[in-house]
Amino acid sequence: xHRMLIRNGHIVDPANRIDAIADLLICEGKIxxxxxxxxxxxxxxxxxxxxxxxxxxxxxxxxLREPGFEYKETIASGTRAAAVGGFTSxxxxxxxxxxxxxxxxxEFIQSQAQKEGSANVxxxxxxxxxxxxxxxxxxxxxxxxxxxxxxDDGKTVMNAELMRQVLALSAKLNFPVMVHCEEHNLNAGTxxxxxxxxxxxxxxxSPNMAEDIIVxxxxxxxxxxxxxxxxxxxxxxxxxxxxxxxxxxxxxxxGEAMPHHFALTEAAVEVHCTNAKMHPPLxxxxxxxxxxxxxxDGTLDAIATDHAPHAPFEKARGMLEAPPGIIGLETxxxxxxxxxxxxxxxxxxxxxxxxxCVPANILRIDRGTLSIGSVADVTLIDPNKVAAVDxxxxxxxxxxxxxxxxxxxxxxxxxxxxxxxxxxxxxx
Length: 428
Ligand SMILES: [Zn+2]
Fold this sequence. Notes:
Layout: E1 3-13, E2 18-27, E3 30-35, E4 44-47, E5 52-55, E6 57-62, H1 75-84, E7 87-92, H2 103-116, E8 120-125, H3 139-145, E9 149-151, H4 160-173, E10 176-179, H5 184-187, E11 192-193, H6 196-201, E12 205-206, H7 208-225, E13 228-231, H8 237-248, E14 253-257, H9 259-263, H10 268-272, H11 285-297, E15 302-303, H12 312-315, H13 332-341, H14 348-353, H15 357-363, E16 378-388, E17 407-417, E18 420-424
Parallel strand pairs: 1-4, 1-5, 6-7, 7-8, 8-9, 9-10, 10-13, 11-12, 13-14, 14-15
Antiparallel strand pairs: 1-2, 2-3, 5-16, 16-17, 17-18
Helix pairs in contact: 2-3, 4-7, 7-8, 8-11
The chain binds zinc ion (ZN).
């Protein structure tokens, strides 16, 4: 029997309301016991004094780029980056080539992940065929093939009737519909937020309402159908307020925030150029404050990264031509600790919940807790480790981040997936 004993860590398991110093025993890849002073033989003993021990982190929003864009990222490299960042599970978006709109693509991703993955990979199918927004995919067939949710992320389904249909299917078949909210016409040709910085740089900007209009529309459709709507990467104060309104009305709506949307404003575009270009864009300080308040009061349920690798030659094309998006798997934990936990915006338990049991519940996956008998996905974090982001050391194939060189406090130091260490910077 293989046993791993993690001694004297600060165990934070929000699903089980555990927030205490204790030992944790992993046996044969399962959580075996949590207790005050576990006396047992073990194959390996990890001294977690001063460290936080959480359920393996879950990033419910990443782009792994395989199949089709392996020069940006592969399932192997993207899940390596996940492991380095403390994540044991990721949900990957459907905008591959071919698009994850057929069972064969879902099956390919799942088999690649089995063979080469350093993290559990959960597949999202596309809402519409080839992401064109014109016709629904065969949702039941994709669920059968292993898809756990549906998203046209990167694009907004502009046809409200198609959105009504997929949300009606969600109500019937129980899966999340995860939506990227930007009205295409208001958003066309824009490369950043519409505001002070876009005027200064003379760049085409997208107004907050481009996002808010779709958030409002989809909440109404979720109310009408009873489906589960998940709003991806909320960036506006209006979006947060609309989700709050939807929840008050009893609509099944959840929302997520990204580190870049709580850590940066549109001003970052002046400094980081295309490494601060993403959709939805970085907004104003008022929006950042609203996103943080949304995380605080529970309006925004989860924290995810929108890890979106692009090759250097693509990001070198300038603001007008470069593709939107930044990598995020390796900088999420330190940004959450440095900007939300150490500043007192979120308690440790609140922040950990948003990266473990909450995304697990949204995705209906059997992860995100340290319950006895559950799969031993565990993350160890040193809350006081100070280090600067060094993108040259990234496990991702891409380098597009605005956070390079930034000194942050609170880093993942060990990732355990299925009882096996997938990444460690401490002695085991
Ligand atoms: Zn998106």
